[in-house]
Amino acid sequence: MAAEQEEGLKLLGVRASPFSHRVQLALKLKGVQHEYLQENLENKSQLLLKYNPIYKKVPVLLHKEKPIIESLVIIEYIDETWDGYKILPHEPYRRALARFWAIFIAEKCMYTIWTTAWTFDEEKREKGTEEVSEILKTLENELKDKLFFGGDALGFVDIVGVFLAFWFPILHQVLGLPQLVVIENFPKLYDWSQRLLDLNVVKETLPPKEDVFAAFSANLQRSNNATK
Amino acid sequence: MAAEQEEGLKLLGVRASPFSHRVQLALKLKGVQHEYLQENLENKSQLLLKYNPIYKKVPVLLHKEKPIIESLVIIEYIDETWDGYKILPHEPYRRALARFWAIFIAEKCMYTIWTTAWTFDEEKREKGTEEVSEILKTLENELKDKLFFGGDALGFVDIVGVFLAFWFPILHQVLGLPQLVVIENFPKLYDWSQRLLDLNVVKETLPPKEDVFAAFSANLQRSNNATK
């Protein structure tokens, strides 16, 4: 993967964010160099407010001064704009499946994990835990004996799935989620997660574990203070 | 548009549903004939449970006995599988914009309208109404002086936007939403909505107004009973 120079390509992101990471990983897979601009969400830059006035969120990819927003939309844009590594499969049915599972992880799975993790209402947490367990079972069944969701190589679904391999165990550590939903309970999913974390492209783009741990801990502290 | 015969192409849908309609409209634009199977959500068919075990929802497109799920994913699949009418633009940046706005309408806009319409908590409704008004302003600004969101012809965003042209005014009628968010208050959006409803492909695929009115009224009746 020869790094391709791309004049004026900028990524507005937050290092500890799984949403920003997806885009960094997609750019790395394509070998496209870019300027990375770290955002402070407590004090958003003029650039972020100008280019994403609707959501005011990261990631934003700026290419030839035109903004691309929403991480899944950005990944498809990267795949269609630069040659090299193929992130989405070529065949329409396999593309549809990749989109379906990417959305499943990005929305249903992450949303359920997130809301379950950050609720301190016992009943809701119990119900959420069951749902998370069902979702992980569904992913385990979908993965079957494939090396990656994308088949033999990392693809669209795996890029989104890095959340499960990296962020999810840290969330567990910080919040003490029930054992039921530890990723180790899902052997295929667990092996896949280790395979993901072993890839150099993934290693080189992930934020330091301590930063994510610190971000979740600060969030926990804030929510403890809010409920006191 | 010559109708193309497509052996074994089936659509599982619900006639009054805007999600099913999107797919019918996309197939109509391509001139692809299919068998339409009406689902009863109170008593789901074995076919629906078999092919969409995760969500158990419509629409499901069955092509060569393989299911495609999630309306936006289905539309992209249709666009990539059949020649003829181009639903998404070819150029990557314009494709990214189309995806962004389609998601904006399908998720943020419809979700906010729906939850605002069906809440009977006055404070929440007031806040929701303001949000809906902001969203419609955003769409008005995006539309500018274009005939369609897709430019001179109906595209991905417009297909999803039929909800605003057809379902939204009926929702207004049934639930008496505040005047603030009547589509007539947004002149460009209103003209666009009339332009959409005037197209034969749209007319020929829309369900009868009375059916949607009846479905919303039944929903209102159920929610009135539930809160009594």
Automatic annotation (TrEMBL), chains A, B:
GO terms for biological process: glutathione metabolic process. GO terms for molecular function: glutathione transferase activity. It catalyses: RX + glutathione = an S-substituted glutathione + a halide anion + H(+). Keywords: Membrane, Transferase, Transmembrane, Transmembrane helix. The chain crosses the membrane at residues 147-170. The keyword Membrane applies. Gene3D superfamilies: 1.20.1050.10, Glutaredoxin (3.40.30.10). Its EC number is 2.5.1.18. Residues 91-216 form the GST C-terminal domain. Residues 7-86 form the GST N-terminal domain. It is an enzyme of class 2 (transferase). PANTHER family: GLUTATHIONE S-TRANSFERASE U8, GLUTATHIONE S-TRANSFERASE, GST, SUPERFAMILY, GST DOMAIN CONTAINING. Belongs to the GST superfamily. Tau family. This is glutathione transferase. It comes from Arachis hypogaea (Peanut). The lineage of its organism: Eukaryota, Viridiplantae, Streptophyta, Embryophyta, Tracheophyta.
